Amino acid sequence: MRSYVELPEPLIKGLEKLKKDYYLIIGRPTMAPGAGLKGYKDVTTKKERKLAPCIGVFDHPGMLKDFKDDKFQWIEFPVGDTFMLDVSGMKTKDDYKKVLTKAGKKNYTAKFKKFEKEPNLVYELVDWVGTDENIDRIWPLYEATGEKNGFTVLTKEDFYRYHRIVPNQKVAYIWDISDPNNKKLTSFNTAFIWKDILHPMWCGTDYSNPLNRTCSTYFIILYNMAHYAIEQQNLNWVDLGATQRKAKTSIGYKPHPCSLYFRCYNTAYKKIVEYSMEKYYDPSKCMTDP
Question: Structure pTM?
Fold first, then answer.
């Protein structure tokens, strides 16, 4: 709640005392719909729902028209777009290039040309193993990237916990092998697979290394994530999440509108949630679209 809702400090302290300073949020971590309104009970326990002061469910816009709940009241808040790439009909890298604009194709070709000509950079995609050693390696780059962009989503504690427990993860590395005896991590991206969707999630870059800029290491990772999804017969989508509209659409991802639905116990509670969201919710903190 603290990351996205700018509540006054006295109100935060009051909610903490009442143990009502959190929401139970149900959806994919990219903000896209998961189980949705009709399936949120299937992916949570009765105890979790009972203890939560307020439940939020990510789903497509306009879902309340066909959703009935005789016990609770619901509110819809549009939260912007998540950006996704449909790879279900793609067979090769050339199919991916077809969804790019003329400028996008030019950038794709130019970036790979520079990267492939640089002998000191190596890309690899491997299964993630959540050891402290592996997390220690990527955390500093994630932290530095968050500080540069002015917003770090995960605390260090949450970052370590996430990378220890989330299943079906992959990690993309770009290594600087200028010194063969001491290779250095230039960029990384950890991703997980849920059903038929690849989610490239947490990323980081060593901004002190000039190769990351001259060889566009972050974009090389994203291009290669799309290539990987195309190669896997069980994957149909790549979900890059919200924000950074210009960058994501430039590499072929399409915006998909999303809404967050709040479940409220009664009319009074509903009015409190509506007032709090309208007064304290700051979409610009999670929607950094230009």
Answer: 0.86
